From TrEMBL:
Pfam families: PhaG_MnhG_YufB (PF03334). It comes from the Bacteria. It comes from Alloalcanivorax gelatiniphagus. The chain crosses the membrane at residues 6-28, 40-59, 71-89. NCBIfam families: CPA3_mnhG_phaG (TIGR01300), PRK12674.1-5 (NF009316). This is Na+/H+ antiporter subunit G. Keywords: Membrane, Transmembrane, Transmembrane helix.
Length: 110
């Protein structure tokens, strides 16, 4: 059974690392602010969530009990990341920040 837990922890760390890497590349490579906002809010949040899930699984298996700290970290991460992204996007729209011409929809033009 230890081998199965180790495999699941390794898989969760790898999946979390891949999501974090994709989010970081998106943050660095995407052309404007509105597109760059997707990298850290979606992919990186899933990456950190996967890594913390691996920690939850490993330490819960080692200590034979559920760890509350990791659950709280994931809860706060999944609550605060979308809220902060929404506030950043609203501030950028309010300041009429430049965007790509092929962006669909114009919610800031009323």
């Amino acid at each position: 059974m230890d081998t199965l837990v180790e495999f699941l922890v390794s898989a969760a760390i790898l999946v979390g690392g891949v999501f974090a890497l994709i989010g970081s590349i998106g943050l660095a490579r995407l052309p404007d602010f509105y597109l760059r906002l997707h990298g850290p809010t979606k992919a990186t949040t899933l990456g950190v969530g996967g890594t913390i899930f691996a920690s939850l699984l490993f330490f819960s298996w080692q200590e034979q009990g559920l760890r509350l700290q990791e659950l709280l970290i994931v809860l706060f991460l999944f609550i605060t990341a979308p809220v902060s992204a929404h506030m950043l996007a609203k501030a950028a729209m309010h300041r009429q920040l430049r965007h790509r011409e092929d962006t669909r929809g114009r919610p800031w033009k009323q």
